Amino acid sequence: ITCPEDGVGYSGTDGYVGVGPVAAPLRGSVGCVDANPVTGAPLTVNAQVASIIYGPMEAGFNSDVPGMTCLGNEIVVGGIDTLTAENIVAKICGVSAAETSVLDSCGGHARPYHYHERMDCLYTADPTTGHSTRIATMADGNGLYGKYIAENTLPSDLDACGGRTGVTPDSNGQEVYYYMVQERAPFTVGCFGPATLDQCRELYSTCGDDDVITVSTLDYGDLEYDPDCPCYDPVTHSNVLAPGTSTPNASPSASPTASDDASPTASPAASPAGTSAGTPTGTSESGQGGAVGDEADLKEEDSEGGSE
């Protein structure tokens, strides 16, 4: 998935357009930022054009990542969404989740710069409907919009991919299928839909593959987590099925103080074939292993002035 730097001309990627439901990449790009109404074109962050959107999963952290020496011999395995991963680091290091954030104020980081969450610097409210404006075109050709369907109103009908059918500010009154930014994982897309939760899980060999782990977080206690499974129940926000059911266990993945006006942090996504979680290996986040180098670049950017 290659994104144009000027945000013009991307209409999706072959293999994803018109074939849904289909798995989204677990690492790397899942969509491209449009020439949007806030900036007129994608932002430039530390001399990088900020036109790439990743899915929810992080590639892993260890103490080699600048700013995370407090991890010592501990690691955060790959395949955990950014919001949860930050909270795991906060627990290990004994600091607040805000102090361990790997994302900037707009929800992006690293080299190549990419977004995982929020993207509230990239959209505004439509003056007529209050619906959030369009941010990006995802790999299946459908649009990604900000988080509101009307003034300060969050949707209650998103499917497991993060999409819904409705009228958008730029659909000329016609109903279309589109995605919306979410405050909890998967943040943008869990898959390219439409799809139910069961259909989403069937798209990934990494969902329900008997590798569920228990992670200790600062704000939520101990949670069960299925690494590299980007299919989250919209009610429980868990990606782990309760034994003998088709309903995931309750597992918070957003800030306990999150509200309609709050924007908790999150993380990147994966390849159509799906990958399993692993320990950080120093490879790039765009690869299939753990990514230490990516976070090192983030901290380097922060030291340079980092955000928008």
Portion in helices: under 10%
Q: How is the largest sheet built, in terms of strand order?
A: 7-8-4-1-9-10-12-11
Roughly what is the average pLDDT, rounded to an integer?
81
The proportion of residues in beta strands is 15-25%
Oligomer: single chain
Low-confidence stretches: 252-308
State the order of secondary-structure elements, H for helix, E for strand.
Answer: EEEEEEHEEEEEEHEEEEH
Broad shape: globular
Structural class: mainly beta
Q: Tell me the major beta sheet.
A: 8 strands, mixed
Kindly state the number of beta strands.
Answer: 16
* Gap from first CA to last CA: 24 Å
Q: Helix count, per DSSP?
A: 3
Descriptive account of the structure:
The structure is a single chain. This protein is mainly β. The chain contains three helices and 16 strands. It has helices spanning 82-93, 197-202, 293-304, and strands at residues 29-33, 43-45, 48-50, 52-54, 57-58, 80-81, 108-109, 114-115, 134-138, 143-145, 163-167, 175-180, 213-217, 221-225, 280-283, 290-291. The strands form five sheets. The protein has an eight-stranded mixed beta sheet. The longest helix has 12 residues, at 82-93. The model is unreliable at 252-308 (pLDDT under 50).
